[in-house]
Amino acid sequence: MKKLIVMAAVALFGTQVAKAQIQKGDILLGGNVNVLTHSDKVKDADGKNTSTSFGISPKVGYALNSNWVVGVFANTNFSFDKDKAGVKTKGLDINPGIFVRNYHMLGQSKFAFFAEGNASYGFGNTKVDGTKQDSYNQFNVNVQPGISYFVTKHFMVEGMFGGIGYNWKQTKDEATKVKTNNSDFGFNFTNQFALGVNFLF
User: Fold this and answer.
1) For 21, which DSSP code?
2) Long-range pairs for 49-54 at CB < 8 Å and ≥24 separation?
3) How far apart are CA 166 and CA 154, in angstroms?
4) Residue 101: CB partners within 8 Å, gap ≥ 6?
5) How far apart are CA 21 and CA 110, in angstroms?
6) Interval 143-196: pLDDT, tens
7) List of residues 6+ apart from 147 with CB closer than 8 A
8) Distance CA 146, CA 149 (A)
9) pLDDT digits (tens, 9 = 90+) for 31-73
10) Residues 67/100, Cβ–Cβ less than 8 Å
11) Is residue 2 predicted with pLDDT exceeding 50?
12) Are 91 and 65 in contact (CB under 8 A)?
């Protein structure tokens, strides 16, 4: 009887693990949200500096099979700053793009390793008291590793590491119309880490 119970439990657990993977035709919906507020004030002084930033990064993908997912995403960030003199600065950043992921289940566990390649085109600007100070356009390409855990067969939590990235950015000073080009190539696997959640439908 004990052997029968153990075999039934193993069979049930194995079935749950088998279901905890991506299937062809699945829709992946996920992303992350971040909010940051900060303020500082000198003791016994009038006024204070305050800053708030809010970002939302939705992602939608389609599973070509149990290993490959392709999709689109948009990284956005909005910032608001106010100094002691009451000067307000607003920042806007929007970076839509495409991605492709390759998933591999880790043995019989509910963990899956993935590698993601993505590319995005971004734009944004900075305004001080309603007057635009500068604007920019940029292009990003990244290759990032990550790991997902299937909490259920329809819900995953994931972590992504820095990876390899290239960024090209052109900033225009609105007052002088002078444009400045910058490019960066980064190789970071330990300095950056991001958490997110995904749903499968």
Assistant:
1) S
2) 49/81, 49/82, 49/83, 49/84, 50/81, 50/82, 51/79, 51/80, 51/81, 51/82, 52/79, 52/80, 52/81, 53/77, 53/78, 53/79, 53/80, 53/91, 54/78, 54/79
3) 33
4) 61, 68, 69, 70, 114, 115, 116
5) 8
6) 999 999 999 999 999 998 878 999 999 999 999 999 999 999 988 776 667 888
7) 111, 112, 113, 114, 158, 159
8) 10
9) 888 788 888 877 777 778 899 998 988 999 999 999 999 999 9
10) no
11) no
12) no
Host H or E run for residue 4 = helix 2-19
Write phi, then psi, for 21 (nearest 5 degrees).
Answer: -160, 165
67-108 pLDDT tens trace: 999 999 999 999 999 988 889 999 999 999 999 999 999 988
Map tokens 């939705």 to a residue: 58
Instruction: State the pTM of this model.
Output: 0.80
For residue 5 the two structure tokens come to 């119970």
Tally Cβ neighbours within 10 Å of residue 30: 21
Domains in the chain, start-ordered, CATH in brackets?
2-200 (2.40.160.20)
